[in-house]
Structures are given as C-alpha cells and as structure tokens.
C-alpha cells in the first residue's frame, strides 16, 4: 500500500489514535493486522480454484489459492506429488497499483495521503481478494514459419476484490510463471460488499459469449461484460445485466452457471443458480431474435438452515445443495413452454453416515459421485468434544447407468470419464465377470462404427476382469521394495490393470455405507481377497488358469487391433509430412513390414497406404541401429527392439522408435513409454 517505512509509521499512528473509531477499527481488522499479536495466527486457506485441464506444462490443472492473510498465489504439480508456487499475483498487482499511484485510470482524481485512514482503508480494499475463478480455455490459431497452423491457448483468471473491482488476468498456455502473464485489466462492478464470483460462458450460433456474474452480501446479482479483444471469435454483452436487484439482505453464497439445450425453443440456453440464504435463486438466460430473455425466480422450502454449499452436474443440469444439518437436496430442472421448474428430492445422509454435520459438497465431472465433507453430529443433545473432518463419497449412479453413459458418450475419452469407469471397475472386481448386457452392447457398437474408443473400453473391461481373477498378492504392491535386484519389465497384459488400479484404486464397502471411498494410492486388492477359491486341489485351479489364459489371449488380440490402428495413423502422418525432421527417424519400413506380416490381417486401407509409402521410399530402408554395437535393430515386436548382440531397447508407444536415450516418459496406467520426456 506504500513504502515500508511510511506504512509502519501509519500503522503505529492508527493503533495509538485517541479516536476509538480509528484505533479499534484498525486493531480488529485482520487485513491490516495479519500478524494479530494476541489473536490466533492467520494460517490456512480462504478459497481455492482449479483451472481447466491442460493449463500447466504437463497438461494438468493449475491451482489458484487464497490464503487467510489475503495472498493470492498460483501453484502447479510439476513433479509427482510435489506442488510448486509459480507466481504471487498479490505482489504483482500491488506493484502495478504502486506504479499507477493507486489510480485505476489516468482520468481518476488523485486521492489523499496514506496517513489519512480512509485512504489507508481504500488502498487495502482495492487489493484484498474475496474470490477468484478461472474461465474456459480460449484457443486462437498462429501461423508458423512453415505455414502450419498452431493452436495457441490462453486462460483468464478473474479476481474479485473487497471494493467490488475485478482484475481479469490473461495467461498464455502452458503457464510457466511471471513470463506467461499476457495482460491484466481491472473492471469496476459497482457492487457493494461483493461475496461471490462466477464466469458466464454461453454459446449461440457458434459464437462464444462470456461475462462475469457477481453476487453481493446484500442480495443483488448481476452479469458484467468482459471485453476479450485479444481473443478472436469471442463476444460479450453490451452492458451489465441485472439478474436480481433487491437489497433483501440475503447474502449470495455461491453461483453456478450451467449450459443447457432448450427443447421447446430449440436453442442453447444458460441456467444461472445462486444460493441465497436457505433459498436457491435461478435465472434462465436465452438469446432470441428479440434479444436477451431473462426469466428468474426462487426455489423455497428446501432447507430449514442456510445453504452452506452448492454444486452442479453440468452434463444434465442437476443441482445439489446442502445445509449444515446433514441434509442434501437434489434439484432437477424441467423445461416448460415459458421457462422451467425444479423437481427436488431429499438425500438424508444420516441414513448412511449416522448424525453428521455437513460442511461442503462437490459432484464428480460425470455425476457418478457426490463428495461430502462431514464431522460428527450431536449425540444425546451434546456436541462432540473433538471434530474429525472426513470426505465421504456417495454414489449417485448405478452400474447400469454408468455403463450406458459410457457407451453413448459424446466425449469418446475414458480418461475424462474416470468417475464412470470407476463404478464399472468396482462392479467387475466385485462380481468377477463382465455382465452379458454390457458385452453384447459393446460388441454391437464395435461392429456398427468400429471407433477405437469402444476397443479401448473393451480392453479396459478385459484388464479389470483379468485382475479380478488373480490371487491377492501377499504384500502391498505400491510399497517400494529395497532389494537391489534387476528386473526385466514384464509384457504381461495384467501389468497394465494392476498399476492402473494402484494409481486410482477403489475401496468399496458393501455395508450400510454402500457409499464409497475412492482414493489415490489405495490397495485395490482389499476387495479381491477372496478372488480365487482357496481350495488346494489342482482340479479346481486348472479351470481358473484356463480362464486367465483365455482372457489374456483376448487382451492381446484387442491390444494388437489398437496397435495396428495406431500404426496406420503414424504411417499416414509420415506420408503426409515427410519434410518434418522427426518423421524421418520413425522406422517406417519396419512398421510397414510388421503390418503386412500377418496373413490373417487384410485391411485394404493399410495396403493402399503402405503401397504409396513404399513407392515414395523407392527401395530405401533407413534401418535403426543399436547405439552400443551399431548393429541393425529389426522391427519384430511392437514393445521392444533386440539387436543381434542381445541389447534390448524399449519402443516408444507413440512413434514405434526404439528409445536409446536415458530420459523418457512412462505411463503410470500401463507398461508403456514415450520417447519425448516432455508431454505435448
């Protein structure tokens, strides 16, 4: 807020002021006194916000964290389980204000000196964050020197301050630190005592619109325009839109914006829901020829206590709210001719967990789980002596619903639907078989469209089935062993699934708490203790071993199909882009020979493509050589290359090159590697 020496003098002056309105206000405000002297220290976090997927150097999420002493920082998970602070936005914003003499625009009249208490308060409130939220990723195209188009991504972080101003930071992706900050613009919202912030993102006729929804502790809610001149194809509102203007003293606790399709108007629309006291305020925004239509109302009679947390499933628009008495409400929007109405039902957590107090809820990306933070409730009218905070996971979908959603998914990516696959995994591990209806539906999908997504789904099911049949290991698999023995990396198809589940293992209990607890690093084999009959007779074991061999053969067949499809993609890339230096080191001839070596494999597309490539290569072979003995590396196996002197090199799963460097990337979910150590 000013030079250190001057700030220290002012603090001393205000603390010892004879005017109690100054001295007491100063001493009791933790923004001015983060150290607090006799008061408890300001440790911990006020608020945190996750960026969309694909923002850091590894293609993962960034975490914006607001500490109790009002410092806003951005962190990234660069190495496994290690979080690093990339930038301190509070410090950078403070420097910008200091350089601009604490004026937001050049037209602003100069204010008083720092010694004036009102100016001291103003300088603090204009840089004390209340909330921060990330926008979706904005993508523009940049033309490179070789006339190729490259997608350049950027993301916005909106920071709401105590005085109602909003700073909109633009970051270039991947975000690496201070050098990735593109711009910072400040918007004046005009809202007194702001409490919550959310991005409004709406798509109409292939035009993306954006704005910021701001709620006040006094009641009003409004959308502010955000001008994104730097991003092509993005539009905003011409002027602010007031969604609720009454100062009814019902503070806005949280806001969610859900994109939906209107079945009657046959167009996309935007549903904004806000928790206000014990009520839910909703507003339906719809762009028509007449302009922006706004319908709003409140849903009452949900909770007897104020709503402490709200979350929304963005796939179907279902909203979940909870109050501190352990009651969760599910609100399902139903469209009418004019606007919409909500059907709501009660989820009593006390029936599952006993009497509990709830502190927060969140729904998983595809709506499979509801995470609830709970502490013990009152017993015999008495509060518990100690509070033990727990995160409980409640299943919101059945296995059949999860399987149907995976089969009909428009995302076509198992990684982005990991909560649904988790439900499917648990069912197969428990029952030790894949249900017939799922097998038949999946086979039909594979026959009708043949997308690699369904083949991957089939591979996932087979791997989990293979794992459910295996005996539980005598010792915990994820615990590191301290033996110095050299181990050859196994090609067993079971390896992929066991590692998969150690990373994202599930531990389910079929007791009253059918509501589960999924956590990283748990040992999946808790559920599979009785996976094999413990009979000692050999006759009982043989059918199980035969079944394991049969599943293993199916796994290898599906893996081979996926490998061939990927090889065709790699060859197509090489054929179209021969001038790219990296493509010249791909063992093209070896891949072609590998595809043609199997007489049973008759793919016309592959034959035509290979014919074109061999014509282009004109009898040249470009073989790979072993870096140790300079012998030729033959292409006989998709997983590894072995030279005539017995040197073994693993093959990159993306390019099929032999990895002869010391540094490469390894997939945590499967026993495969990638040649480039940095992810794309």
TrEMBL record:
<feature type="compositionally biased region" description="Polar residues">
    <location>
        <begin position="507"/>
        <end position="516"/>
    </location>
</feature>
<protein>
    <submittedName>
        <fullName>TF3C4 factor</fullName>
    </submittedName>
</protein>
<feature type="domain" description="Transcription factor IIIC 90kDa subunit N-terminal">
    <location>
        <begin position="6"/>
        <end position="397"/>
    </location>
</feature>
<dbReference type="InterPro" id="IPR024764">
    <property type="entry name" value="TFIIIC_Znf"/>
</dbReference>
<dbReference type="Pfam" id="PF12657">
    <property type="entry name" value="TFIIIC_delta"/>
</dbReference>
<feature type="domain" description="DUF5921">
    <location>
        <begin position="398"/>
        <end position="475"/>
    </location>
</feature>
<dbReference type="GO" id="GO:0000127">
    <property type="term" value="C:transcription factor TFIIIC complex"/>
</dbReference>
<dbReference type="Pfam" id="PF19336">
    <property type="entry name" value="DUF5921"/>
</dbReference>
<dbReference type="InterPro" id="IPR045803">
    <property type="entry name" value="DUF5921"/>
</dbReference>
<dbReference type="InterPro" id="IPR044230">
    <property type="entry name" value="GTF3C4"/>
</dbReference>
<feature type="region of interest" description="Disordered">
    <location>
        <begin position="488"/>
        <end position="541"/>
    </location>
</feature>
<dbReference type="GO" id="GO:0004402">
    <property type="term" value="F:histone acetyltransferase activity"/>
</dbReference>
<dbReference type="InterPro" id="IPR036322">
    <property type="entry name" value="WD40_repeat_dom_sf"/>
</dbReference>
<dbReference type="Pfam" id="PF12660">
    <property type="entry name" value="zf-TFIIIC"/>
</dbReference>
<dbReference type="GO" id="GO:0006384">
    <property type="term" value="P:transcription initiation at RNA polymerase III promoter"/>
</dbReference>
<feature type="domain" description="Transcription factor IIIC putative zinc-finger">
    <location>
        <begin position="618"/>
        <end position="668"/>
    </location>
</feature>
<dbReference type="InterPro" id="IPR024761">
    <property type="entry name" value="TFIIIC_delta_N"/>
</dbReference>
């Amino acid at each position: 807020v000013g030079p250190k020496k001057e700030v220290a003098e002012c603090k001393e002056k205000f603390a010892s002021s004879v005017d109690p309105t100054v001295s007491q206000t100063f001493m009791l405000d933790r923004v001015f006194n983060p150290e607090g002297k006799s008061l408890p220290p300001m440790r911990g976090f006020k608020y945190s916000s996750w960026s969309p997927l694909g923002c850091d150097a590894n293609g993962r999420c960034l975490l914006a964290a607001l500490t109790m002493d009002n410092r806003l920082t951005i962190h990234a998970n660069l190495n496994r389980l290690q979080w690093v602070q990339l930038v301190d936005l509070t410090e950078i914003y403070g420097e910008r204000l200091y350089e601009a003499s604490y004026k937001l625009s050049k037209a602003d009249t100069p204010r008083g000196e720092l010694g004036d208490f009102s100016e001291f308060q103003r300088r603090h409130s204009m840089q004390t964050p209340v909330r921060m939220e990330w926008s979706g990723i904005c993508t523009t195209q940049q033309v490179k020197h070789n006339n190729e188009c490259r997608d350049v991504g950027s993301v916005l972080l909106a920071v709401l301050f105590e005085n109602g101003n909003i700073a909109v930071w633009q970051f270039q992706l991947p975000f690496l630190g201070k050098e990735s900050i593109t711009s910072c613009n400040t918007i004046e919202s005009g809202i007194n005592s702001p409490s919550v912030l959310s991005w409004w993102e709406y798509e109409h006729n292939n035009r993306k619109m954006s704005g910021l929804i701001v709620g006040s502790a006094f009641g009003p809610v409004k959308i502010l325009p955000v001008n994104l001149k730097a991003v092509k194809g993005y539009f905003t509102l011409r002027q602010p839109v007031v969604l609720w203007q009454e100062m009814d003293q019902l503070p806005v606790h949280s806001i969610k914006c859900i994109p939906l399709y209107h079945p009657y108007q046959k167009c996309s629309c935007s549903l904004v829901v806000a928790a206000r006291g014990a009520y839910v305020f909703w507003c339906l925004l719809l762009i028509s020829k007449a302009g922006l239509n706004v319908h709003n109302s409140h849903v009452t009679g949900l909770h007897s206590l104020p709503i402490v947390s709200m979350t929304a499933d963005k796939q179907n628009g279902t909203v979940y709210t909870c109050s501190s008495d352990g009651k969760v409400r599910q609100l399902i929007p139903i469209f009418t001719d004019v606007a919409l109405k909500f059907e709501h039902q009660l989820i009593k957590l006390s029936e599952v967990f006993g009497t509990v107090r709830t502190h927060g809820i969140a729904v998983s990306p595809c709506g499979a789980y509801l995470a609830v933070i709970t502490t013990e409730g009152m017993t015999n009218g008495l509060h518990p002596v100690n509070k033990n905070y727990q995160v409980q996971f409640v299943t919101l979908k059945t296995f059949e619903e999860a399987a149907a959603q995976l089969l009909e998914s428009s995302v076509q990516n198992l990684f982005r639907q990991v909560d649904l696959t988790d439900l499917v995994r648990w069912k197969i591990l428990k029952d030790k078989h894949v249900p017939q209806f799922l097998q038949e539906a999946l086979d039909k999908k594979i026959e009708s469209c043949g997308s690699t997504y369904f083949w991957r789904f089939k591979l996932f099911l087979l791997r989990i089935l293979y794992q459910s049949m295996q005996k539980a290991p005598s010792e915990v698999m994820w615990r590191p062993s301290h033996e110095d023995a050299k181990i050859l990396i196994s090609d067993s198809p079971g390896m992929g699934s066991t590692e998969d589940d150690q990373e994202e293992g599930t531990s389910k209990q079929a007791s009253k708490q059918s509501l589960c607890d999924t956590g990283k690093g748990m040992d999946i084999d808790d559920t599979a203790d009785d996976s094999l009959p413990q009979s000692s007779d050999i006759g009982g074991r043989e059918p199980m071993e035969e079944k394991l061999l049969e599943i293993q053969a199916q796994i290898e067949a599906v893996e081979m199909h996926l490998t061939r499809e990927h090889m065709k993609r790699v060859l197509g890339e090489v054929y179209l882009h021969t001038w790219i230096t990296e493509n010249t080191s791909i063992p093209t001839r070896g891949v072609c020979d590998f595809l043609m070596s199997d007489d049973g494999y008759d793919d016309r597309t592959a034959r035509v493509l290979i014919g074109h490539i061999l014509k282009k290569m004109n009898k040249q072979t470009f073989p790979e050589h072993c870096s140790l003995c300079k012998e030729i590396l033959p292409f006989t196996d998709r997983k590894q290359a072995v030279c005539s002197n017995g040197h073994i090199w693993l093959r990159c799963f993306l390019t099929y090159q032999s990895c002869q460097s010391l540094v490469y990337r390894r997939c945590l979910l499967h026993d495969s590697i990638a040649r480039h150590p940095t992810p794309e």
